[in-house]
């Protein structure tokens, strides 16, 4: 069994198709097809199944990919023993919560690419719960997230000095700004992202404790879209201060007074306990420690 065949299999899964894997690896699509045929013949199991036009891993393929990631990682680790002076290579898959990815990671990404140009960096926007799932199943190497109830039997977390201060914000045109008095029914929506969002869960828990009922929840999947709707006085939102600091500075948004405003959420770096910290991962972690502001 050749390691390059396992690398190709992993690339197909990570990139979603034979064609995209071929582009990433510098192969022709026919080479990818031949390698997978050879691997299936050697393993005596089909690795993929087609349902209409959609291709997905077979049940056996899912097990093979899980083991293949471990074997490729071990091969890379062994290969790195001989000469640590060689340029960093390989692939680094990092899942990051959207607010950090959009507003805090630009310098980290820019310097990483400058210092490790041969490493293929795959960045994905995921929520805290999905990052945990992806780390446990091995579909990402590193997670940058906020504090959650992480399974520390499987995952290793590093708490950074950085903490994200979350605040309640609204348009300056909003007139009903009392979110302190309990037992209210307010004709204004919460504008937030998906139900698994840490910030949404924190704010909804506060509303429940205070017995404050809002008209509805407008569910969006983009922080920028959320901010635009709030600036148009369509509702309120609860976000990290760094995500709205420009709008607060120029008056398009205002901070509302409420006990929930000011909650701090530590920023965490997370990896699987059994996954070797590659030189590329270590560099990315080093840059995060250096570049993220101490108080977000």
UniProtKB/TrEMBL annotation:
Q: Boundaries of each HTH lysR-type domain copy?
A: 1-58
Establish whether keyword Cytoplasm is in the entry: no
Q: Name one GO molecular function term.
A: DNA-binding transcription factor activity
Check the record and name the CDD domains matching this protein: PBP2_LTTR_substrate (cd05466)
Q: Does the keyword DNA-binding apply?
A: yes
Kindly give the SUPFAM superfamilies that the UniProt entry links to this protein.
Periplasmic binding protein-like II, Winged helix' DNA-binding domain
**Matches recorded under InterPro entries:** LysR_HTH_N (IPR000847), LysR_subst-bd (IPR005119), WH-like_DNA-bd_sf (IPR036388), WH_DNA-bd_sf (IPR036390)
Q: Name one Pfam family in it.
A: HTH_1
Q: Which UniProt keywords apply?
A: DNA-binding, Transcription, Transcription regulation
Q: Which family does it belong to?
A: Belongs to the LysR transcriptional regulatory family.
What's the protein here called?
DNA-binding transcriptional regulator, LysR family
From which source organism is this entry?
Hespellia stercorisuis DSM 15480
